[in-house]
Amino acid sequence: MGGGTAVTTKVAMLSTSQEEGVDIDYFFAQVAVDKAEVDFSVTCGNILVGVGPAALEMGLAPITGAVTKLTIRAVNTGALIDVIVQTPDGHVTYEGDTEISGVFGTSAPVNVSFLGVVGTNCGAMLPTGNLRDTIDGIEITCMDVAMPMMIARADAFGLTGYETAEELDADQALFAKMEAIRLQAGILMGLGDVTRSVIPKIGLLAKPRDGGSFCVRYFMPWKTHPTMAVTGSQCVAACALTPGTVADGLTSLPQGTPALISVEHPQGVIDVTVDYTRTDNATQIKSAGLIRSARLIARGEVMVSSGLMDRKIP
To answer: What are 192-215's pLDDT values in tens digits?
Structure first.
């Protein structure tokens, strides 16, 4: 809660799932910080990493051994995610040696494998039917893998792709241009009028500098993400694995599967392991896996006035 930024103003609502083969239902809400709006159209991968440990702490699912595997349903999109939580001695542990770029210190690993993430919002991996579309003179790839995105090359906007989040956020002309293209992309992707929706998100790609597969700057979409989203990283990884997209030429395509894609972002690297198949005509994404971390920060209650609770939602 709080922080005054989109990446720190989110809500996860958990319950024991009634669906066969699923342990936990996870319903996500993105709360706007500059207006009275809440977006329920997407899910959040970074918040999802904490769902497994939180569900176990809350008693929504049983601990089953030294590690506990849970299947989580992202209610917003219908995607299923397998999560492995470290539970030695019958309780969740947060202590470990896993390092995550942009996160202070080390923690116990949380293994996350996203299943069935293709077309969860738009109905297809390439919702426009094209590997590339051109809007307002800018070549883009519209893709829906874990997160609907409009992906472009940074140099198409006159950028290096290595600008800081602060530098990008100060460039109002850039945001105006990206938003004009995003609104048109939303229609092409079958999302309708996305003026008040956070999807499609925006990703700008550049060649890597630090040994990764490529570099990305990710947008929320009206503010630059300080690092990189878990869901967005899966989408840009899928883009890199698909010949003919705007990612062509940024990196050499892995030949084997699963493929490790290292996505450079403003505070480091996020690694995505993608299980996929490729034919002459298409790339098919089976699953995407990541190792992340979570920690228990606080327990408590948020007090809401009865007047707000009784108010009818329009």
So the answer is: 999 999 999 999 999 999 999 999
Structural domain total, the chain: 2
CA dist 51 and 181 (Å) reads 34
Q: Reduce the DSSP state of residue 233 to 3 states and report it.
A: helix
Residues forming beta bridges with residue 134, ordered by sequence position: 139
Structure tokens belonging to residue 267: 């505070």
CA-wise closest residue to 270 among 244, 235, 296, 241? 235
Residue 76, domain member (yes or no):
yes
β-bridge partners, 275: 287
Please state, in angstroms and rounded to a whole number, the distance separating the CA atoms of residues 172 and 164.
14
174 belongs to a structural domain: yes
Specify whether 142 is located in the same domain as 276: yes
> What confidence tens digit (pLDDT) does each residue in 41-64 have?
888 888 999 999 999 999 999 999
Q: What one-letter code names the amino acid at 203?
A: G
Q: Classify the C-alpha dihedral 188-191-194-200 as positive or negative.
A: negative
